[in-house]
Amino acid sequence: MTAEVIVDIAHSDVDKIFEYRAIEGVREGSRVRVPFGNSAADGYVMRLKEGSDFDASKLKTIERVVDHALTAECLALAKQIAARYRCPLALTLRLFLPAEMRRGKARELYKTVVTFAKGGELPARAKAQRAALAYLQEHSPCDRAQLCKQFGLQAVKALVARGFAAEHRERVTRSPYEEVEGAAPVRTLTPAQQNAVRAVCTAPQTVQLLHGVTGSGKTEIYLTLIAAALSAGKSAVFLVPEISLTPQMLSQLRARFGRQAAILHSGLSAGEKFDEWQRLRTGEAKIAIGARSAVFAPVENVGVIILDEEHDGSYKSETNPRYETAQIARMRAEYNGCKLVMGSATPSVESYLKAKEGEFGLIELPERINRRPLPEIVVADMRREVRRGNPSPFSAALREEIAACLAAGKQTILFLNRRGFAQSVVCRECGAVVKCAQCDVALTYHSEEHCLKCHYCGAAYRMLAACPACGSVHLSYTGTGTQRVVGELKKLYSSARILRMDVDTTAGKEGHYKILKRFADREADILVGTQMVAKGHDFPGVTLVGILDADMSLHFSDYRSGERTFQLITQVAGRSGRAGEQGKVVLQTYDPENYILRFAVQYDYKGFFAHEISLRRATAFPPFARIVRVMVTAEEDKKALEALKEVYFSLKELYDAQREEFLFFNKMRSPVRRIQNRFRYQVLLRLKGQGEKLLPEIYARALAFRSRGVLVYVEEDPANLS
Ligand code: ADP
Ligand code: ZN
Ligand code: ZN
């Protein structure tokens, strides 16, 4: 037999099949050690076949089989992904293995156990042996290390030698979140939930979009679908934006499915990751739960794939290959002939458009469980607060509500929008935002050069001393920090117990989890945080949500600002009033007339969508166009610039030949000039439609200019353009 092997070296020169003579035990999907050049390398067996395309007598022989890491589905998927994202197959295959395992840094953990074999006479002077045997008779099997500590190594050895005890090695599985004990009842589905489950199973499309308002009981629908897959003898993949942010979800899954659920995420130790992965690979565990990378989980015979909070930005990979999780999930669903269920209270406009056009099935849950009302959103006009001389980050309305909430013994979440630290400029008096003259997107302040830049066309503008709309000098550049908010809160409500959650306070494994757990256990009255508090938490004690700066994300220099703002407000608001009591939300803004805010306050997703989609159509932005950024970086500025020029001229040929396909084409320095010591340049393109016709050629031309020290990569519809 001949094995077609991809060698695990991520270099385009070796990105091809090498043939080796197979040895006993090699399968398709095996990881193998092969002779390569003057040494040896790891490789993946893509295919086994009779005969060879080369001179069979010259083939080298596989040295040994490492394991059988990859399933048939992995191999098929890897080829598809490599082709789609023009990425070396070796690099793509790596996605399917925990990195620590690939580097040989994680292995099975074993311990030796000692068992009682038989009783019997021991010499009187062998006191330790007699004691150990007596102990073992009561406590067999025992951990050998512990037994030795108690009775001495010699005694244990002697017992084994005399046949009174036996030793053997046993596999230890390390398992994360063991302390997450579950107490989640299996609920009777409401008629709306039943209908949704039925619709998922019967609809013809592979992808089903579940658009359900916050608190409509989507989780219960997912769990039912997973249970159904399991009872059909299949497995399931459950993807969430960030697993450490969803302790309730974890405990629910653990309670419902026990050890059948395995958790994959970056916060685990190498050993835990390895063991959870192995449990899935062997089929011991059947449900893979995790963030983005869990889409590559080694489960076979998948019965359903769930992608929760499908609008979330974390589903896009930030390293090569820059895949979109939903795209991979869809490939897997098609491969397995199962459904991909994408759920959200605020679907991305791309997905909702596909659902409206019939490419995806559409299931709507317009009401919360038990017809519980959605929380009322009160708008606080911060311009008036400024005029009244209120310098604090809280409006009068919010202060009153916090006091009332504290008095009632309920919990409050205060949300600060601080993503994207480079800020745009907003007038604190009239609410105007400074925009690019050509692109109608907000400009971003660059402190290094002390200027304002447009991230879509590269134009730079001088800094402003006053608002171009009203002349006020009260321009603001940065939002208020969480720390300051906590300080002000302490001054106002000295007895309130406050928790802060942001990147500074959540370091370390399970950092988020700990804070959320404390809040869930009612150890605090107020939780102050950034984006992390907006995710799908279900805290029954929360009846008030304050959104301190609703506008900040409207001003991000991004065509998706409006969409993101709508999503954020809806998601954060959705944390309020989820149990018995009616919830309330105070939304603070300098721009109360803004249409995005008006739709959000009414929970009018459809209105928002209709408006947003016509705007995208009119301005030719995604999903009616595709933005492509070709990044070129190098440690030397000159080297990066030279490479950029080459890339640019190669792409320009394409542009000149097919100008009608382009909406924008130019080269420029990247808005952030240098990251991690590498200078950054880019070619920005905006293509008509989905750009399918040109994308392969763009990838090929751009990637051809990779060289020693120069990185070139292509991003499609990048999440940010900094
Ligand atoms: P979503 O994910 O849509 O925001 P959840 O799944 O968190 O909503 O459900 C909201 C609340 O309703 C949760 O507290 C959940 O326990 C409860 N719930 C869900 N389904 C049912 C049901 N069938 N009967 C009673 N309560 C339910
Ligand atoms: Zn102004
Ligand atoms: Zn511009």
Strand order of the largest sheet: 12-13-11-14-15-10-16
| Alpha-beta classification | alpha/beta
Terminal CA distance = 51 Å
Q: Architecture of the largest domain, CATH level 2?
A: 3-Layer(aba) Sandwich
Small-molecule binders here are: adenosine-5'-diphosphate, zinc ion
| Proportion of strand residues | 15-25%
CATH topology of the largest domain: the name is Rossmann fold
Average pLDDT works out at 87
Radius of gyration: 29 Å
Instruction: Supply the number of structural domains.
Output: 5
CATH superfamily of the largest domain: P-loop containing nucleotide triphosphate hydrolases
Helix tally equals: 21
Q: State the major sheet.
A: 7 strands, parallel
Description:
With 722 residues, the protein is of the alpha/beta class. It folds into five domains: 101 residues, PriA, 3(prime) DNA-binding domain (GIY-YIG endonuclease), CATH 3.40.1440.60; 64 residues, Arc Repressor Mutant, subunit A; 179 residues, Rossmann fold, CATH 3.40.50; 180 residues, Rossmann fold (3-Layer(aba) Sandwich), CATH 3.40.50.300; 92 residues, EIF_2_alpha (Alpha-Beta Plaits), CATH 3.30.70. It has 21 helices and 31 strands. The protein has a seven-stranded parallel β-sheet, sandwiched between helices. The model has no long low-confidence stretch (mean pLDDT 87). Bound molecules: adenosine-5'-diphosphate and zinc ion (2 copies). One zinc ion (ZN) binds next to loops. One zinc ion binds next to loops.
